[in-house]
């Protein structure tokens, strides 16, 4: 018999694995993802393709869907009574729960539409979220600077041939597939596990000349295949949406990398710690994998800024350990 998301969350509350505020929050994210999914799947028919004509705080040009998804996300969670505040890739500063709604005990941080460059070509995109306990008192940007290790839940929704909600509240990783006829999310995978070794990597190779020595050396050895020092052949994938890369790693293993490069030497990497690297690292570790900056676990970083960037190496445990070895050696 199929298990719906509501059944799954209700059972988790009954078993004291999560409280009802967290259940309501995950449920609200699932609900709002159906609205984003509706826009995504209708594309040009819904008039949501193309540029918004604005830039976000990171100086990136916003797509219409970035802005629309952000609005859907905010209005989808602010009323729940579960959140004290929200922070997003698409908002310069955090948003305190408006006073007409009950203040909840959690903070939610999100990337409403990840992989924006895929929107207009009908390739996979997603929504990423991270939930932590809210500190007492007034909520400011600083309230969100909580190490990833302290997340109480994290997940993503992937919009692709299938729409899949993946999350963890610290008791393993589960995946739900949206039945678009009934509108129900149905449990389709439990106890997701990433094999410790792999023969598949993902990195944007066009940046090779910009990488630092350890990453150049490591990828050179991956490409050398069976005859090189690693003694095996590797395959490569690049979807250009972190959600899709992490989903692949969770489904069949691999390593995904977005290292520092010298195109913008002042930035530690491309991906953002609070609403990309941390939630994904939480899922990867929950599935038995590892997530590192190359020098240590991403989840142990003390965040310094809301929109901080970080180098990311995540996936198969032994492969991530190997990347750390290269960082020590070179
Ligand atoms: O959010 C940033 C992002 O879109 C990720 O989803 C993705 O992994 C990466 O950027 C793609 O980068 P590139 O433009 O180098 O392919
Ligand atoms: Mn993103």
UniProtKB/TrEMBL annotation:
It is found in: Cytoplasm. Its main location: cytoplasm. SUPFAM superfamilies: Carbohydrate phosphatase. Coiled coil: none annotated. Binds 2 magnesium ions per subunit. Transmembrane segments: none annotated. Substrate binds at residues 114-117, 204, 270. CDD domains: FBPase. Residues 14-190 form the Fructose-1-6-bisphosphatase class I N-terminal domain. Keywords: Carbohydrate metabolism, Cytoplasm, Hydrolase, Magnesium, Metal-binding. Mg(2+) 2 binds at residues 111, 114, 276. Mg(2+) 1 binds at residues 89, 111, 113. InterPro entries: FBPase_C_dom, FBPase_class-1, FBPase_N, FBPtase. One of its GO terms (biological process) is sucrose biosynthetic process. Pathway: Carbohydrate biosynthesis. Its EC number is 3.1.3.11. It holds the Pfam family FBPase_C. GO terms for molecular function: fructose 1,6-bisphosphate 1-phosphatase activity; magnesium ion binding. Its cofactor is Mg(2+). It catalyses: beta-D-fructose 1,6-bisphosphate + H2O = beta-D-fructose 6-phosphate + phosphate. GO terms for cellular component: cytosol. Homotetramer. Belongs to the FBPase class 1 family. This is Fructose-1,6-bisphosphatase class 1. It comes from Turicimonas muris.
